[in-house]
Amino acid sequence: MEVDSMLSKKVMVFVVIIVLAITTSAFGDEVRGSATVGYKWSLNDKVKNEALEKAKLDAWGKYTSKFPRARMSIYQTRLKSQFLNNLDQFMSYQIEGERNDKKNDRYSVAIRAKINDVAVDDLFTRNSAAGSANDSQLSDFGSLFIARVQVQQKNYKKRVVDVTRSESSSVVEQTTGISNAGDVDAVNTKDMTVKESGGSVTQKRAETVYEVSEDYNTSLADVVSERLEDAGYSPLEYEDLTDCGAPFLEDVYEEFRSNAKMGSRMVKSIRNAAIDCGWSYFGMGEVTLSGHRVDPATGLKAVDANVSYKVWRIEDGRSRRVASVRNKTFTAMHTNEVAAEQEAVIKAADYALKTVIAKLQAKEVR
Fold this sequence. Notes:
It is a single chain. By secondary structure, the protein is an alpha+beta fold. It contains 8 helices and 11 strands. The protein folds into 3 domains: about 25-120, Roll (Thiol Ester Dehydrase, Chain A); about 135-155 and about 205-360, 3-Layer(aba) Sandwich (Rossmann fold), CATH 3.40.50; about 160-200, no CATH class. About 40% of the residues lie in helices and about 40% in strands. A hairpin with a 6-residue loop joins strand 9 (about 280-295) and strand 10. Helix 5 (about 215-230) runs parallel beside helix 8. The relative contact order is 0.12.
């Protein structure tokens, strides 16, 4: 009996943990909201509910203010009323504080809200061209997303050249006068020196060495696949492009190790391969990790991730750029440097994919 009881407790605990994990994973961003409402005579439930609804709207407004421009455009023009009329489907909340100001007949409430990112993304997707397509109409979308880590940077001192020019001259002044003894000539000599200085300063650009991280490339691929599938696209693997003449990944990695960005010839060869393979969309970008340091305020390991990403639409044998993200930097901090890098990579990739997908949805393309 005791054994059965112990097993039951273990099962119950296990189930609770799973439910909590699922619930927590569905809700992402956390925002706070507050509101104050006036009342007459006395505080009642109607006043409290009015203040609570306003606090929820305040929290929601703070969340939507962080939308990328393209997603904000869709939200304002097509979906705002759907979200506001069903706000409880997209957030959960907890009251953090209440205050009843009896002197001024005002009631205030503050809440902490958690946004259901999955539900939010789903509504955007269902109202996009890609999201409304059936399985046979899904657009394929291939991507090459590479992560690299700055491992060395060689800086050069400034080269300073000073130029000085000097000129000297003498001025002779002669004075003639008459004294009791006769004529007197006096000669005064003045020396003047003029100096001019100038010069130039030159500095050689720092040499930076990068290392391509295949582990982080896997993380990037996972983010891309998840975001594309959620948006109603059919993800494709870059390796398939090599059959159509695209360079192998090893060659692409070598290009990124040696240069600040991929050369135009390689970019063109990859795009042409996507055209030859008949892909509908092709995305290409990179995440560069740099600025490794210790945060002086927290003592945590900090790292910056700079992301850029471009998307081309392929149609009638030609590629046309339809969306892009340029040089957006994210910072992550952790007790472990590798964990900080991983978090920064995922932050940057998630932002890039959300942004370009929102732009595609705004243009109603699939």
